[in-house]
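User: We ran a pulldown and think these components assemble together. Before we commit to crystallization trials, I'd like a predicted model of the whole complex to look at. Sequences follow.
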Amino acid sequence: MHLTQCLQRSLQQTPDKLVTLFGTRRHTYRQFGARVTRLAGALQGLGMAAGDRVGMLALNSDRYLEYMMGVWWGGGVLNPVNTRWSAAEIVYSLDDCDTRILLVDEQFLPLVEELRARAKRAPLFVYAGEGPAPVGLLSYEQLIAEATPVADAGRGYDDLACIMYTGGTTGFPKGVMQSHQNLWAACMPRTMDMPPIPGGVLLQVAPLFHVAGLARALIQFFAGECHALLPTFEAEEVLRIIERERVTETLLVPTMILGVLAHPRFADYDLSSLKRLTYGASPSAGAMVEQVIAALPGIELSHSYGLTEACPTVSSNLPDGHTEAARRSGRSRSVGRGGFGVLVKVVDEQGLEVPRGAVGEVIVRGPNVMQGYWNKPEESAKALRDGWLYTGDGAYMDDDGYLFIVDRLKDMIVSGGENIYSAEVENVIARHPAVALCAVIGVPHEQWGEAVHAVVVRKPGVALSEAEVRAHCREFIAGYKCPKSVEFRSELPLSGAGKILKKDLREPFWAGRQRAVN
Amino acid sequence: MHLTQCLQRSLQQTPDKLVTLFGTRRHTYRQFGARVTRLAGALQGLGMAAGDRVGMLALNSDRYLEYMMGVWWGGGVLNPVNTRWSAAEIVYSLDDCDTRILLVDEQFLPLVEELRARAKRAPLFVYAGEGPAPVGLLSYEQLIAEATPVADAGRGYDDLACIMYTGGTTGFPKGVMQSHQNLWAACMPRTMDMPPIPGGVLLQVAPLFHVAGLARALIQFFAGECHALLPTFEAEEVLRIIERERVTETLLVPTMILGVLAHPRFADYDLSSLKRLTYGASPSAGAMVEQVIAALPGIELSHSYGLTEACPTVSSNLPDGHTEAARRSGRSRSVGRGGFGVLVKVVDEQGLEVPRGAVGEVIVRGPNVMQGYWNKPEESAKALRDGWLYTGDGAYMDDDGYLFIVDRLKDMIVSGGENIYSAEVENVIARHPAVALCAVIGVPHEQWGEAVHAVVVRKPGVALSEAEVRAHCREFIAGYKCPKSVEFRSELPLSGAGKILKKDLREPFWAGRQRAVN
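Assistant: Here's a predicted model for the assembly, 1036 residues in total across the polymer chains.
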C-alpha cells in the first residue's frame, strides 16, 4: 500500500509504454521513472526528510505528475497548492504545515516575492516551468539532470502522503491529512467499477491540486495507463487534444462540459475516441446530462460525489444510472451508491440512520477517510466521530442505496466546482470598517451552478459600494470566493437566538426549485 | 478494510439479489444477511470473543459462506480445516491455534469422536450439515433460529481474519496468519483486472478451505454478485450446474478441467453461459489450454499463481496472455505478471535481483503478504525477510515482467492442486521401524500433474513391502500425501556433505522435459 508501487510495476512490466503527453513532450514509463527517481534524489539533496512537505504551485503538466511520484518516491508528503488562492491564503497553508520546498511554474512566478516576504519561514523555491529558471530560483530541470537516482523510500500504509488544504468554516483553511492507504483505498471503487480503458488516454484538465484530479491521475497510474495534460481549461484546447491524442476518457466539472458542448467549433473535431466522461461537483446536472448524450451519443457517463476529507470519492452514479430509463425515473439525478469499501449512511442529528427517503446528513466510513486535519484536533474531532466522517451534506437514500443530495448542512457554496465556505467570505467582508453585519449565500447561476451573493448592512451614516466590497475581498481571498453580487439592506432576518436566518435570505432566489443547492 | 463491508454494502444496495445457490436452496442478500448476523450472535453466545478461532470441517455449501461472513461479523477468526487431512493433522491444527468451536457437516461426522478424544482441549462441535443434528452436537440451524442478530463487531485492517494451515517443511503444519487487510489487498488485483461479471454467477467447486477458493469467493462478495456451490468435484455435476444455474465463471485446477472436458456427456450440456475460466496450480498447462480452447471457443482464460502466504495471488496471466499469438510465443506458459499492489522480484541467493531471463527465487512484497506463521517465529523469520516473502519457487521473468516458474526450491510436490511437502511425508515414512533411509520426490503424472514417489532403503535383514509403507503413511497423513509408488533401493545418492541428492533421484523421471515441476 505504497502509492509508488504502481510505478514500480509499470517500470517492471511496461517500461516502453507512454505515460505522459504534454504539448509536444511525451515520456515513456522508463523516462518518467528515470526523472522521478532523480527528482526524489534531488529533493532529498535539498533536505527533504521522510514525512517533509513539498508544495507545488503550478498548472497541470507532466511535471505535476513527476512531482507527485517523485515526492512520494523520496519519502516526502505533497502539499498541492490551490492555484486560485490569494497570496495570503497560500502563505497561511505553507506556514501551517511547514512546507520546506515549493515548486512553481511560470504562471506563478509573480507571486514568489510576496510569498517569500510574507511566509514565517520561506520555503526553497524551485522553478518547474518551461525554459531556464529565473535568477534566484533553483531549476527543476537542472536538479534532475544533476541528481543521482535513489531507491524508493518505502513509505506507505498509514504514512502521510498528502496534505490538501480546503476552505474552513472557521475562516481558516484546514489541511486534510491523507495517508497512502487513504488515497489507495479511495481510488479502489472506481478502479473496480470502471477500470481505465486498456491502452487508453486520460485527459487531465481538472486541476491536479484538487483531490478529484489527483485521485483520477492515481487511478490511471494504478492501471499503468497514459495521461494527456492541459495546463488549464480552455474549451477549444480540450476539443483539440481529444482529437490529437485520441483521448478515451476524462473528468470534467459541469461548467467545463457546458463550455465544450457550446463551443462553436464543437462539430469540427473528431471526438470518436472519447468513450467515457466523469463529472463531479453537481447534484443537479440533469439538463447537462441530456445535452451530453445528444452531442456525444454512446458515451459512458458517470457522476462522482466526494469531498477532500474522503480522498475524495464517497459514491458514484455509473453508466447504468444514466440510461434512458434512469433519466426518466430521475435516478440519473442521484450521486450514486457507495463504492466498494466505503460505508455510507444518512443519519439524523443523533447519528441514527433515518428511513429510506428521509433527509439527513451523509456520513462516511472506510479506509478512504482522512486521518484528520493537520494541527486542528478540535476540527478533526468535529468531522470524525466514532470512526465516521460527517460530511455536512444533506441527502436521502432510495431503496436501492442511491444517494440524492438535497441540501448542504454546512454553510458552503459550490461555484464552478469549487467549495466556498460562507464563513470565510463573511469574515473577510466583516473586516471592512463600513460593514455592520453581513451574510453570504449561494444563489443559482446558469454557468457556475451557484454564485456567491453577499447581503450587507452598512454602519449608520457610512458609504460603501458593491465595487468596494468586492475589491476589499480580492485583497484577502481568491477571486472565485469573492461575491459576484452584493446587496445592501437595512437589516437581516434574525432568529429568536439572534442567528441570521440564511434560509430566509436564500428563499426568494431558489423559489420553485426542488433543491436549495445546485 | 473490514471484510464484512462488502456484505453491508450489498445489504444496503441490492438486498433482493440472489447471493447463494446450493441445491434447491437459494438465498437473497437479505436472507443471507439475516442468517449471518444471527450466526454471529449465536457464536458470541457460545463464547466466541474478538479474535477467537472458529473452524469449519465441511465440504462447500452455502453454509460455508455464512460461516466466513458470520465469524467475521461476530469478530472471530476463521480456521478453515483441510478436509483431506488425517485426524492427526486436524487435531494438530485445532490445538495449535486453540480453535474453540468447530462446525462439521455430515461428511465429517465420523471424525468427531476421534477429534474430541485426541484434542488437547476439544472444541465445541456444531453440526452444520443437512437434517437434524445428531445427539451430542449443537445444531447450526437451531442456533441461527434462536439467536438474536448482532451488529458488526467492526474488526478489520491488521486484525487477524483467518488462520489457514499449510504443510510444513519441518513436518508440522504451519498456521498462516491472514489479516483483513491481507485478504482485502490480495483480492484487489483480480477485482481490477477481471472484475466479476455483473449479474453473473460464480461456480464454487474448488474447496473453500483453500485460500484460492476462499479468495475467489471474497472477490464475488466484493462485487456483490452470486455464488453457486457444489460440495465436491464431480465432472458431470459441474456440467449440470453450469447449464442449470447459467454459471458465468469458475475457478478450477487443471485436473478438474481435464475431467470435465473428457466427460462422455460433455457435449450434451449447454455451457454457453460460461464466459471465464480461471485455473491455478499448474506451471505446465499448455496442452490443457489448447483442449479448453478447442472445446469452449471464445472462453476467457486466466491462470493465477500464488501461495497461502500471499493470500494467495502473486501473479496472473490474463486472457491477453492466452491468445493464439501468446500460445505460439510460449507466453501462455507464463504464470503472468504481478498484480496491482504486489511487487514481485526474481532474486539470487543474496536477495539481489537477477537479470531478466535468469532463474532465481520468486520473492513477493505487498499488503497481501501474510503476517507470519502462528506461534512459529523462526519459520516466520525464514519466510519473511526485510519485508519480502520468499516463496521457494524458482522462476525467470521476461522483459515484459511475465513470470515463468521453472523449479521449486522448496522441497514440495504439487499433486492435483495440493501442496505436499516432501519432508512431511519423509518424516512419517522414517518412523516405520523397518526404514533405514528414505526420500520423497514428485514424479510426472498425467492426471495429477505430479505424484508422490518414495524411495526407501530398508534396514538390513528386515522385510517391508510397498503396501506396508502406504498403509503406515495413511495412519498419519492425508491420503493425497501418501506415496502413489514406492521404490526400494540398497542406497541413496548422497552429496559430499551427506545430503540426499534428490536432483539425481528425480532426473530419470523428468528426462526430456523442460521443467522439473508440473
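Residues 412-510 of chain A form a domain with the GMP Synthetase; Chain A, domain 3 fold (CATH 3.30.300.30). That may be worth checking against your pulldown data before setting up trials.

User: Thanks, that helps.
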